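Quarterly update from the structural biology core.
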Amino acid sequence: MAALDFYYENDVKLKPSAKPAFRAMQLLAEYIIEKIGPDARVSAFAQLRQRDFMRWCHEKYQHSAGTIARNLSVYSAALRYCCKPQIVRDGFGNEIEVLLLDSAPAVWTQPKEVARLTELPESSPREWIPSFEEFGRFIDAIDARQENLFRFVMLELNTWARPEAIIDFRTDKQVDWAFGVVDLNPPGRRQTKKHRPKIKLTDNLRGWLRHWDSPAPLMWNGQPVTTMKKTFKRHAIACGLLQFTRYSIRHFMATYVRHAKPPVSKEQRDVWLGHNDGRTANWYEHRDPKTDHRKNLTPTLITGLKKARKDERYQVMDAQVPGFGVRVTDKGHKTFILRVRYPGSSTPSRREIGNCADISLTAARDKARKWRSLVAQGIDPAVEEEKERQERLRQQAFTFAAVADDFIRQKLSGERRGSAVEREIRRDLLPIWAGRPIASVTDTDVITMVRSKLSRNRPGAQTHGQNAARNLLALLKRFFRWVIAQRTYGLTTSPCDGLRVLETVGEMKGARDRTLTDDEIFAFWRAASRMPYPHGHVYRVLILTGLRLNEAADASWPEFKHDGIWVIPAERMKGKNAGKKQARAHVVPITDALAAVLKDVPRFNGGTYLFSTTNGESAVWIGSKIKERLDRRMSLTLRALARMRGDDPASVELPPFVNHDIRRTVRSRLSRLKVTEEAREAVLAHARPGIKGVYDLHDYLDEKREALELWAARLRQITEPSPDNVVQLRALA
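Predicted structure, tokenized:
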């Protein structure tokens, strides 16, 4: 307490800053008495107490970091003053040298340090300047009763001086009328760091000073005015310009003179402002609305942005995208914004793009460019984004399983192979994609799905996986084309677009040429005859008729007529319902061998299908496991034949074949039997090529019957050889 009193009485009391220093000392004294005691020593106000003082100032008086730092700087100056020997007079008038303190604790006086310790936002210079219209409104509102305010404004406009220099201005001591110079640093003034320059006496200022004709332009009741702060503040509030301060005039002049014609150099502006440090003028230029203050935003720059002052916000605009920037709050929250004139508004407004913590700078810039493009088209980005959000919600409601069910019900139910395609969808696609939104399936997902088929080759069937992958890709392309065509699922592009079989599946192998030999046909018939119903019966029908697998397996009793024919309807035959490749009904003559197989087929009360494991309600499905069972039985028979011939059975291997190779075998054997080309093609239900297929509608029933009878006889010769060619085989499981 004594140090503060000594400093005030012997030093500060004589300075222009006496009043603010006295207020700071009063605040310090209040804290010391309240928290420490009136007899506290200097050492008691160390750094821990200083931090407590900071919190106390903020909580009790809501002081900012800058105000707290200024109060502490007064205390620091007092300690430094007391640590130096001083010449004072005692009570008798004698001069004595005194030293109050040998040393003093360090004091935090920098606003940045105070802000860091108190977690308060750093103080920053005022960045508001009035426009010409606002400045004109301020001056026009000054009436005759506010003469001193008018003179203050005129002096500051003509001198750019600080408010303290205007208050101290004396015409008789500071104006050299002969040389036209005004010395803003009057004789006898105690010099401070605030430099006051000599400036030119302008004609405008000369006229006002002559008009006022007073040693001190600012007078009240015959005495010089000591402050204009309250008068200035009241007038600013009355004008609705709450941010207009005494310094605003100085800032206004320093800013707009940059655009004078001819332009005023920066060096000259620094002289008029009384600045020795060029960095100070940069703050004034920063406030210039005509100066491009945009920055090239980077993630590092955004991360380094500090919190705004309490109850304030500030923005840093981007140099790349007009109107785009970052807005920072007093809590340190950073948000990407875009300021443009949105549709329906006559003035620019600010909208948030996203939180800096949630969206990258690149994504935010792209979004800002998209918004600007929409605005240029007269579209409100908020409306467009709401449409997109509703569309996403609608797409998410359509899962792959739901759309697949619609596809199966609406598209596949009336198709010949609809049930087979449905099985593929439920087996390969639904287990993986069932719950996914239909719009979320990408080309990468399709490629992964299709290529997974390539690794599923069955032993002995190298091309099975490749064929399955090709068929699956074709199914997916067809499925997504149908989805897009419906216009109800929110899908506009197919993930299969641009996917070609060659690049996705690989080059297909050449056409198959596998046919069964006589021994293999013997082993096939023996294995099929010993396989239980319905699988063995289906395989025997295949080799007797040359039909495709599903054409035989899906047979139903209504297709069999009393006149010894089997009519397979067009919807079950290969082809389409319309067009050039339109399917046609196929008539199969029932030979004695075929009738013998059908004689053993049971009739069900629950359904009409011949070959069924569900009491006739649905047709049997001949899958890969059934085919593998047939192959094992054939291999056992072939090894037994080799053993009877004296060959090594271990060296016998059944070359791989697929179900469709049975059909090729029948076609090849009919050629050996000298059956005509027309009859052979009719047996296989092949459409005649070219114009013949258009005009020749003959069903070749008699020719087909004759061909199949010949083939049945040859098959009987292979499977039931003459006694001298018979090889006795033991029964095989």
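The chain has five domains: 2-118, 132-286, 299-395, 398-504, 518-725.
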